[in-house]
């Protein structure tokens, strides 16, 4: 049984994705920005699944999989308590042009830091001190992910709320953009954000799966709020995210309504389900997600945004990628 399970994992060569068909023919392929990835966890997942894998370091992994895929930038997310000390090595390695060229093959490395609601019980003055130290780093572009998660309740809800408010107050004081995790906690997340965050503050609701009604209220109240779209939009079990995109795009409107979205992976989680149409020789499912998969999420977003629209099809994969890239600049300055 163990052997069969092992053999069901596709070979690591399948992690090397082709250029998305819709972008391969483009004269100028649009730059890809992954606004939410967990690079250490992704590399750890890779080494766990491919113990004899050829990539021995995070830098090897990025150079091997992202080179020639037009990945312009990633926003790496550190959200553990206590804070992982390895953040500084990665951040420092991206300070110089030489480091970005040699270690990151030109990919711009940025990061955010906070404490995930799962680990709110572990939030201490010492943890906060470490996060504040990271906030001063030139490659740090935001505070997060932080928020509320009432699906798992890994930390008591009252503690989640207290720690969420504490982090929001620090981020607002510093003027740092916010990366928000919220799941099945719409009422409390909305109340807390509206009470503690100025309307003009920059907010990224990461990996959106909540109701389209809640998204509409938040987008209306916070003019600099963006909805994070991961590969979960492609899953048949999730209808909410598509509804939000459909609601934003107002199919058939002329000119097409802007999409206040950010493209992200939340890697190593949530491989886009529509990816496998381009990987016809793969048997089984890829064991991890990575930034090179973003064009397939964009493809799904474009299809949803075009539903009910004119035959001209206003949204293309390239246009979605470019819109999300512009939004990433507005949100994080990257």
Automatic annotation (TrEMBL):
Which PROSITE patterns does the record cross-reference, listed alphabetically? TATD_2 (PS01090)
Drop me one GO molecular function for this one: hydrolase activity, acting on ester bonds
Keywords in alphabetical order, please. Hydrolase, Metal-binding
Residues annotated as binding a divalent metal cation 1: 145, 266
InterPro entries recorded: DNase_TatD-rel_CS (IPR018228), Metal_Hydrolase (IPR032466), TatD-like (IPR001130)
Q: Which CDD domains match?
A: TatD_DNAse (cd01310)
Residues that coordinate or bind a divalent metal cation 2: 181, 206
The record's listing under SUPFAM superfamilies reads: Metallo-dependent hydrolases
- Please, which domain of life does this record's source organism belong to? Eukaryota
Alphabetized PANTHER family for the sequence? DEOXYRIBONUCLEASE TATDN2-RELATED
What is the protein named? Metallo-dependent hydrolase
Q: Which organism is it from?
A: Wolfiporia cocos (strain MD-104) (Brown rot fungus)
